[in-house]
Amino acid sequence: MQPHDSTSFRLSVVIPTMGRPILRKTLDSLMETDWAADLDIIVVGPIPQGPTLDYLVGMRERHANIRHLPVSFAKGDASEKRNAGYRESKAAIIAFIDDDVYVPPHWPQTVSDCFREPDVGMVSGPSLVPTDITLLARLAGLALSSKAAGYVAHRYIKGNAEARRVKWSRTIGCNMIFSRAAFEKIVKFDPDFYPGEEMIAAHGVTQSGFALVFHPEAYVYHYPKQTFRGFWRQIYRYGATRIRLIRAGLDVEWTPLVPAVWVFSLVALGIGAIFHPWFLWLLWLDIGLYGLVAAWIAAGVVWETKRWSDALLFFIQPFMHLSYGVGIWMECFRPDKDLGDAVGKPTT
After folding, report:
1. How far is CA 10 from the centre of its chain?
2. pLDDT band, very low/low/confident/very high, at 338 (cuts 50, 70, 90)
3. pLDDT tier, 158 (very low <50, low <70, confident <90, very high otherwise)
4. How far apart are CA 104 and CA 97, in angstroms?
5. 4, pLDDT greater than 90
6. Taking the CB of residue 271, how many other CB atoms lie within 10 A of it?
7. Is the per-residue pLDDT at 130 higher than 80?
8. What CA–CA distance (Å, rounded) separates 89 from 283?
9. Residue 336, by phi and psi: left (phi above 0), alpha (psi -120 to 50) or beta?
10. Stated pTM of the model
11. What CA–CA distance (Å, rounded) separates 278 from 230?
C-alpha cells in the first residue's frame, strides 16, 4: 500500500465516533462518491474489538487515505475529537460529519463548489431521513421536518435546490464543512460547551467576517432516534441548548421559545383549574387549539407522503414540543446540567 500524496487531497472528512456499527455505512458511502480517492478521511475515537473495528482495519489496508485516531477525552469528548481530526487534516476544506450518517455520491463536489466564492467560510446542508428505519424513527424524522418544527424544519428537507446564505442557527451539526482559513479564525469546537458546540463554531465563523451557505443538494442521510426515550432526550437537549446559546451571547430568536410558553400555559392553567372552573375551560381550549393545529400539520404530511401511518405524527408533535419546552425551563432553573449520555457520544 503506497502512501497517498497529501497535496492531492481535495476534501478532509473528520468523523468522531463511538464505534457504532453504522460507521461502516458512513465509510462505504464516502468511498462510493465521485471523489473517493481524493478524500482525506479521519475516523476519531476508540472502537471496541469486534466487527466494526475489523471492518475499519480492512478499509485502512485497502485505502491509504483512511486514518484512525483512537483517542478519547474526559471532558468535551465530541468537541475534542473534532479538533483532533482537524489537526490531522490535510485538505483546504474540512468536513465534519457524525458516525451515523451516509452521503450521496455528489456530496463532496457539491459542498466544495460552494467555496468558490472567497468569502464563504462554512457550508451546511440538510439532514434527510433514510428509508431503512422503524416507524417510530420515521415519525421522529417527520416531526423535525414538518411545520411543527418551525424554521428548524428546513434543515431536514431538501426544498429549493439553490444555495443560500444563512445565519448560524440555520446550519446543522452532523453536516458542517469549513474552509481551513475560516476554521483557523475561530476557537475550534469548544470542549466546555456541549451540546451546541457546533452552533458556537458556526457563530464564530460569521463573527470572523465569513459567510455561511446552506445548500439543499449538500444533503446527508442521518439516522433519527429509534426510541421514545432517545427522541425525548434529543429534543430536551435542543431546548436546554437554546438557553445556553442565549446565555453565551448568541442572537436571541423568539420563535424557538414558543414551546416553553406552551408548557408554561399548561402548567399555569392546570394549577388554576384547581381553584376555579374557568381555568379548566381555558386549559381545554388551549389543548383543543393545539390539537387542531397538530391535526392540520399531520394531515399535510400525509397528503405529501401518501402514507396513512404518517398520521401518527399527530401524537409525536406534542411529545416533541413538551420535551423541548421542558428542556428550556429546566435549563433556566437548573443551568449547566450534564446533558450527555456517555463520554464520547456526539450530538445526533
Report:
1. 24
2. low
3. confident
4. 13
5. no
6. 11
7. yes
8. 55
9. left
10. 0.87
11. 37
Mind listing the pLDDT tens digit for each residue in 273-316? 999 999 999 999 999 999 999 999 999 999 999 999 999 999 99
Q: Are 14 and 42 in contact, with CB atoms under 8 Å apart?
A: yes
d(CA 52, CA 17) in angstroms, rounded, equals 11
Show the DSSP H helices in the chain as ranges: 23-31, 51-62, 77-88, 107-113, 135-145, 180-183, 197-207, 228-247, 258-273, 277-305, 313-333
Distance CA 132, CA 61 (A): 29
Closest CA to 27 of 3, 62, 1: 62
Average pLDDT over residues 241-250: 88
Phi-psi region of 101 (alpha: psi -120 to 50; beta: other; left: phi over 0): beta
Look at phi and psi of residue 42 and say left if phi exceeds 0, alpha if psi is from -120 to 50, else beta.
Answer: beta
* Residue 61 grid cell: 489496508
User: Of the candidates 41, 78, 80, which has an alpha carbon nearest to the alpha carbon of residue 187?
Assistant: 80
Residue type, 175: N
CA 254 to CA 272: how far, in whole Å?
A: 26
